[in-house]
Each structure stands twice: as C-alpha cells, then as structure tokens.
Amino acid sequence: MKRTVPLLIVMILGFLFVGYVFIPHKIYADFYDWYMKWIKVIGPFAVVLGVGSLVMVHTSKIKRKVPNWGYSTVTIGALIITTLTGFIWGIQEGTPFRWIFKYFNVPMGATMFSLLAFYIASAAYKAFRARSVEATVLLIAAVIVMLGRVSIGQAITHWIPDATEWILNVPNLAAKRGIGLGVGLGMTATALKIMLGIERTYLGGGK
C-alpha cells in the first residue's frame, strides 16, 4: 500500500492533467478549478515546511559550530527581522519591510549577479579557448555577443550590436529551439514513464 497508493495518485492525476490540456471537456475544466483551489490551501503549508527546514538546518550549524557558522546566524536573524517587520507594519510602500527589501535585498541581488558576470567570463575563457575551428567560432561569437550587449560595443562600431542581434536571433535561437524540442520530448517520455508506473525511483526505490 505504501507504494501502490502514491502510484495510483500520480497515475490518476497525470492522466487528468493530460485530459485537461488536450480534451476541452467540462469534467477536466472542473477538475482544474478544483485543483487550483487545493493549490491555494497547500501553498501556505509548503511555506511553513520551507521555513522550518531553513531554521533546522541553520540552527544545527550554529549548535555544532561548523565552519562559517556565523553566516547561519545572519540568515536566522534576517529571517526573524524580516518576518516581524512584515507582520507588524505590513508590506506596503514606506514600511520597514519595503526599506529592508529596497536597501538590502535588491543591492545584494545586484552584487550577486555582478559577481556571476566574472565567473561567466572565466568559464567562457576556459570553454572557448581556440583549440579547434569549432572552438574558435564559439570564441569569436562569444566575444561579439559580450561586446554587443554593453555600451562599449556600440562605441567601437555599430556592426558589433548588429552582429550580436543576428547571432542571438538566428543561430542561437535555432539552437535554443532544438534544445527545447529535445527537452520537451525527454520530459514527455519521463512523464509517461512516471504515469504508467515504469519509473518509480521517486518512491524511494528502483523497483
């Protein structure tokens, strides 16, 4: 029963969702409305579960004094302060919650993405070293695109932004569509395997 009931739930819900997408019938529309109502009920429990998991992980690190446990203290403190300001003063414009979001969360997000730019440039250098004709083409395309996405590319010559748009809209888009098609076929095959009970590893075993 521990494996049969979850399998039946996944199978029934999977085929109902397939029916909702491909069969325009009132039964499937009613099922989707019912499902959306349940999502609104389950959502808050998922938030509680996530916050509880976050607190347990970081309090455990603080108790065991693992390396960099100070960051866990900052995380727990930020969680408590942000939650209290949201509950006490609300989340409207001009409240402490908005002040924290505007002057802490947004700058930290921008800093993180700024650091990612250096990691991306480093990874591009390692991946696109001109060891072959294909790698050379990739290297040239990457340099043109990186220059074309910043103002210095326009300052050098207007050909760089034009070439960047062509690279992004023609070969890059074709490759993205090919990858997306392959991913879609893979997702469909995996979904069918789960719905038909062939793939059962999500239950905790391979059989």
Question: What is the fold's blueprint, element by element?
Answer:
Elements: H1 4-22, H2 26-64, H3 69-89, H4 96-127, H5 133-148, H6 151-156, H7 159-169, H8 171-195
Helix pairs in contact: 1-2, 2-3, 5-7, 7-8
The average pLDDT value, as a whole number, equals 87
β-strand percent reads under 5%
Structural class category: mainly alpha
Distance between the termini: 14 Å
User: What would you call the shape?
Assistant: extended
Helix content: over 70%
Number of strands: 0
| Main pleated sheet | none
H/E series, N to C? HHHHHHHH
Gyration radius over CA: 25 Å
Q: What are the segments in which pLDDT stays under 50 over at least 5 consecutive residues?
A: none
Question: How many H/I helices?
Answer: 8
Describe the structure.
- Helices cover 82% and strands 0% of the residues.
- The protein is mostly helical and 207 residues long.
- It has helices spanning 4-22, 26-64, 69-89, 96-127, 133-148, 151-156, 159-169, 171-195.
- It starts with a helix and ends in a 12-residue tail after the last helix.
- Helix 1 crosses helix 2 (26-64).
- The longest helix is centred in the first third of the chain and has 39 residues, at 26-64.
- The chain contains 8 helices and no strands.
- The model has no long low-confidence stretch (mean pLDDT 87).
